[in-house]
Design brief:
0% helix; five-stranded mixed sheet; mainly beta; 340 residues
Length: 340
């Protein structure tokens, strides 16, 4: 028995009832521009001839897209968080039932066309810079047209973020400043951590104090909200180092100073919380030595070189839970003693 029609081809599948020998002919009807499938039975109890048609003809033109809020005129328009209307038209194609559309190439939404074949949608840009709205029309048989891409430029309305996070476990103050008028609230979140909310001051700004618990590549997302509900978002990426800071007055980094037998002191400062000690070595491949940290997590190491030339001090911190930071390599040169 014959079942199903798949992209213009009949498929033979097991079925119930009497078996019939069937002759299949596929033709393209010039008048209707539709393919017709004629099924002629040469045995069994069905009628001598039956017909099935399928419309596989795509709309002949891509749709048109227009917008007075975000026209494709190479000018900048306001802006992220502000909704705008876009009208889709059949552009001369007939039988248009609706439109698939979406930003950045993803056709994630659908809108039905009106009796005149047009449709109007509201889209709120979230990204500043050039935006691309992809639109394709679809007819009543489900055939899609070629895509049309409407390119428009969007001003950034996301909040301004000021301040620097110096290190893991170190409190930092961040200031949020609005680009919208009448901002009353901010939401902010570091990747992997809970979202927080802070009320804006009368001038639309807000300050928060944050303490991050881990480093590496991090991302901060801040969203401002106005009294009327308009929202705009800023995302900021940064890398938070976790290797310790190393400093020395007598033997500054990447400089030539001191000399054999001239004592110096190296200070280690943590970038991780709860540091209890440091592991260090002055020569690659030699066993690491340990120096205890004080209550602030810092440590000092007195040292006097025995030879002149280039030296590299490798240091990493150890936290109370056993966490070891990446190694920081501190390079410096010991000057030779003057000839006597």
């Amino acid at each position: 028995m014959l079942h199903g029609f798949d992209t213009g081809r009949w498929r033979w599948l097991p079925g119930r009832g009497p078996t019939a020998a069937v002759a299949v002919t596929v033709a393209l009807l010039a008048v209707t521009a539709q393919p017709a499938v004629a099924i002629e039975q040469t045995g069994g109890v069905c009628s001598p001839t039956c017909y099935s048609t399928a419309d596989l003809v795509r709309p002949e033109q891509p749709p048109s897209v227009s917008s007075t809020d975000y026209p494709a005129d190479d000018n900048w328009h306001d802006g992220t968080g502000i909704p705008g209307e876009f009208t889709f038209g059949p552009n001369g194609a007939t039988g248009i039932a609706g439109y698939h559309f979406g930003l950045a190439g993803a056709l994630t939404s659908y809108v039905a066309a009106g009796p005149d074949g047009t449709a109007t949608v509201t889209i709120t840009p979230e990204d500043d810079g050039p935006n691309q709205l992809y639109v394709t029309s679809v007819d009543s048989a489900g055939n899609r047209s070629d895509q049309f891409v409407h390119v428009f430029r969007v001003i950034d309305n996301g909040p301004i973020v000021e301040g620097t996070v110096a290190g893991v476990g170190t409190p930092a103050t961040l200031t949020f400043r609005p680009r919208f008028d009448d901002v009353v609230q901010y939401r902010y979140q570091f990747d992997g951590e809970p979202e927080q909310t802070v009320v804006a001051e009368a001038d639309g700004t807000a300050q928060v104090t944050v303490t991050l618990l881990w480093g590496g590549a991090r991302r901060l997302t801040v969203t401002s909200r106005t009294a009327t509900g308009l929202e705009a978002t800023t995302e900021t990426g940064f890398n938070l180092r976790t290797d310790p800071l190393v400093a020395s007055v007598e033997y500054p980094e990447r400089q030539s100073s001191g000399g054999p037998g001239v004592p110096g002191t190296f200070t280690f400062t943590p970038r991780l919380p709860n540091v209890v000690s440091y592991l260090y070595s002055f020569r690659l491949g030699t066993p690491e030595l340990s120096v205890a940290a004080d209550a602030t997590g810092s440590a000092t190491l007195p040292w006097a070189p025995t030879t002149a030339g280039s030296h590299v001090l490798r240091v990493r911190s150890v936290s109370a839970d056993g966490t070891r930071s990446p190694v920081y390599s501190y390079a410096f040169t010991v000057r030779p003693l003057p000839a006597s």
